[in-house]
Design the sequence.
């Protein structure tokens, strides 16, 4: 696992560059995408580069990590809404080639189908990840099996609390979600994890220092052959 530190602006540009490299080399690449506040700057860089004709997304397929259960794609709290707003509306991707799990019909059957669809598309060429303060990736909470595929999960108190900042009240935060599993994520050919802010510092320290363990979902990434973590000074602050 490689570690790159820098300012948020520098890291946003570097991560976007990694995506551009993959797409320029393979115009029909399969991209694994994430939500949360962290990737917004990366997506802004990608939109800018697309407008400057430095990259074209017309041939790519995208698969998002997760979605809240019970939420309509039209709901402004849905991850589909987020992706349309922060990335898909700013680039030339064909919307029918973008895939976000449906929170409305989140079911075990849909979960199983998602893994098959990704495999049939050729597998994910590059996957971006954020990280929860408890070390979750996508919505794989502590204790998730390393061999998990896409599945429905109950969110932990800490994730509900963290994510409540984006809702009017904590009671509005969905209690369940549908998420790519850890084994699904590990199949990506290249993984970039981005972590900004002091509330990620403990998870980053544990990720760097501890042995892989199911109690820290992100620690599975240490077993991946091509994973780089991009951390700003605050997220790296406990390492100094
Ligand atoms: C949610 C998402 C994760 C994301 C995390 C961190 O829980 N399911 O994929 O990494 O939030 O979000 P943020 O980037 O806003 O800190």
Sequence:
């Amino acid at each position: 696992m490689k570690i790159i530190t820098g300012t948020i602006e520098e890291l946003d540009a570097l991560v976007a560059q990694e995506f551009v490299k993959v797409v320029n080399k393979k115009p029909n690449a399969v991209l694994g995408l994430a939500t949360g506040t962290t990737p917004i700057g990366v997506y802004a860089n990608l939109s800018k580069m697309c407008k400057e004709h430095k990259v074209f997304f017309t041939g790519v397929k995208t698969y998002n990590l997760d979605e809240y259960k019970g939420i309509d794609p039209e709901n402004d709290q849905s991850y589909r809404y987020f992706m349309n707003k922060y990335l898909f509306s700013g680039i030339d991707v064909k919307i029918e080639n973008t895939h976000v799990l449906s929170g409305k019909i989140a079911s075990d059957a849909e979960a199983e189908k998602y893994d098959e669809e990704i495999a049939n598309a050729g597998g994910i060429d590059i996957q971006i990840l954020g990280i929860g303060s408890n070390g979750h990736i996508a919505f794989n909470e502590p204790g998730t099996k390393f061999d998990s595929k896409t599945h429905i999960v109950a969110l932990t108190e800490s994730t509900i609390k963290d994510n409540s900042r984006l809702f009017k009240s904590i009671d509005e935060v969905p209690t369940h979600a549908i998420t790519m599993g850890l084994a699904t994520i590990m199949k990506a050919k290249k993984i970039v994890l981005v972590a900004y802010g002091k509330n990620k510092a403990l998870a980053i320290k544990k990720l760097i220092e501890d042995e892989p363990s199911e109690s820290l979902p992100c620690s599975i990434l240490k077993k991946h052959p091509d994973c780089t973590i991009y951390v700003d000074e605050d997220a790296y602050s406990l390492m100094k």
